[in-house]
Amino acid sequence: MNPPPQILHLPGHVDEVFCVDWSPDGEKVASGGKDRLLKLWMN
């Protein structure tokens, strides 16, 4: 089975990303990963 296609590239993590969530208004994205970092992007 092939993985789904990449729909967005958000640089910043140096290891696997475990979770991603969007704000209700779609303006912010948060991600957390194996590198123990929480990243927040704003449109």
From TrEMBL:
Identify the PROSITE patterns for this entry.
WD_REPEATS_2, WD_REPEATS_REGION
WD repeat intervals: 10-43
- Gene3D superfamilies linked: YVTN repeat-like/Quinoprotein amine dehydrogenase
Q: Signal peptide position in this chain?
A: none
Q: Which domain of life is it from?
A: Eukaryota
This protein's UniProt keywords? WD repeat
- UniProt name for this protein: (wild Malaysian banana) hypothetical protein
Q: Which organism is it from?
A: Musa acuminata subsp. malaccensis (Wild banana)
